[in-house]
User: Fold these one by one.
Assistant:
Number 1:
Amino acid sequence: QVQLSESGGKSVQAGSSLRLSCTASGRAPSSYAVGWFRQAPGKERELVAGWVWRDNTFYLDSVKGRFTYSWDNAKNMAFLQMNNLQPEDTGVYYCAAGLHAAPQKPLYWGQGTQVTVAS
């Protein structure tokens, strides 16, 4: 079992920056892939960034160049640095972990943190 806990979500103006944090605990959390998912109002949850697999880090096209995923192995923490936020980035951001080869089927989820971007 892996437990995930996110923090850092808030309401901001367009063009602002935010840094989300995810603390992983439990059994060997560093052995799993970790990523950030987003669920916008009325839309399905989607992988936004992370899920490093064979040295490749996934980024959703719409966030490339603005969002940066990182993992601190010593602290078992994942981060999502979000710059130049836009209203379409609004949603609940979830930290998730699972098998490296199965990014669409995470095994573990955090409770989510709300990000709201006003125009």
Note: The first strand starts at residue 2 and ends at 7.
Number 2:
Amino acid sequence: QVQLQETGPGLVKPSQTLSLTCTVSGGSITINGYYSTWIRQPPGKGLEWIGHIGGSGNTYYSSSLKSRTSISRDTSKNQFTLQLSSVTPEDTAVYYCAYHTGNWQTWGQGTQVTVSS
């Protein structure tokens, strides 16, 4: 059974960099055709796809967040990390990591990140 767990600070100050890590157990993030993805949901809004890193290490980002986003991974720990720079209060959201291929997907429980001074 594949399980995901997001970790990171719950409070980030404006202009700083938000950094979250997703630890994957029961599955490998290096399998081609599998994608390790970050999604967020701001309060009162719908889900927003942020970007992903594929099994080969290729990355792809939302066009609206691309200039501020970096997704990397540590294959020795089976973890992938989101960094979102120059955050503003509009980046306040529940952040989810997901792992998926084809019609199959599994998500972490999500972690609340608030941007406030």
Note: The longest strand covers residues 93-101.
Number 3:
Amino acid sequence: QVQLVESGGGLVQPGGSLRLSCAASGNIFRINNMGWYRQAPGKQRELVATIITGGSTNYADSVKGRFSISGDNAKNTVYLQMNSLKPEDTAVYYCNADIRNLLGNRVYWGRGTQVTVSS
């Protein structure tokens, strides 16, 4: 089994910063890619940013220039540095990982961490 545990969410004022972390553990041969998605109330879950083994990254247009995704391969951990936060960034942020293990390649999700941007 694989577990993804997120941390770092919270309440922040507009213009502020937060750093999310997601650590993967369990039956892992290789992490193909990891990423962050978010879901605001009444909206569909959307991609925020992804990072693949080797370091290539991809961002949603709405967060380019404000958010930065990075990874620590030794710790099976991915980070999301969020700067210049806006109220529209308020959402539950979910960690996602495409992992190869005994079961083959599978996608796993964390339980989510709430980010609220409000004055």
Note: The two ends are 40 Å apart (CA to CA).
Number 4:
Amino acid sequence: QVHLQESGGGLVQAGGSLRLSCIASGRIFKLDFMGWYRQAPGKQRELVARIDEFGNSIYGDSAKGRFTISRDNGKNTVALQMNSLEFEDTAVYFCYAALMIGSSPLSYWGQGTQVTVSS
């Protein structure tokens, strides 16, 4: 079992920055992907950013140009630097990790951390 623990959420004014961090612990063989999703009230969970073990990353449309994902394989951590935050970025942010078994992911999720952006 893999446990994911997020930190770094909070309240910030529009235009400000926050850095989210997540550390994976437990029985970790390999984590092919780590990343962040978010869910705002009344909306579906959406991809923010994801990074593979080689450092290749993808971003959701809302994050492009403003957010940067990074990963430390040796420490099993993933971070999300969020700049130029907007009111619409207000959501619960979930850390995500996955081990690919063939073409199917074995996924793990953190409990989530609240990010609130005041306008």
Note: The chain is about 0% helix and 60% strand.
